[in-house]
Description:
This protein is mainly alpha-helical. The protein has helices at residues 9-26, 31-47, 60-70, 87-98, 133-152, 159-162, 171-178, and strands spanning 4-8, 106-109, 129-132, 164-169.
Amino acid sequence: MITEHKKGVIEFIETVYLKEMMDLVEYPEAPYSKFLIIIQGIEFLGACQDNHIFEKEGLSRKRFRKGMVLMGEKYCDFLDEVNEICFYRDFRCPMIHQFKHNQKKITLATKAGINYEELHLTKNENGQLYIVLEDFYADIQQAAQLLIEQINQGKYNLEKLSEPYLTIHKIEEMRFISS
């Protein structure tokens, strides 16, 4: 028999989205890869809030926006296409589809070497918005915790939230079964 570990949405948020991503953020190397993974997770937060199955196509913009709203008021100026800098247009889409961000509008940074100044979501002398990895992830953590609270309080009583979200198999057992 194959041993499975099925993670529901809340367990996935707690173990993968929060713990594993925190381990990644704290790892001293590969800052760009960290941004790439983190920006993908915002859409997941939004997907947990709608009535559609997770696999439903054509909802990326709406789901990303819902995830950003969950991150708090300080992100409101970056939600919509009419904004000078739109996280969906200038950060999320280029990162996912082109493996880069809009470098004319956004500067990615880490706290290493900036003396922990409050730079996150401020603009530099060229008008580029700083997104500081550690601060950005701290806001994502708060959004994820808020989402867990809302799910536990029954705000999102959706069938998809009670189903397994991620299933992990032990590879050794799978080899034994398949041979």
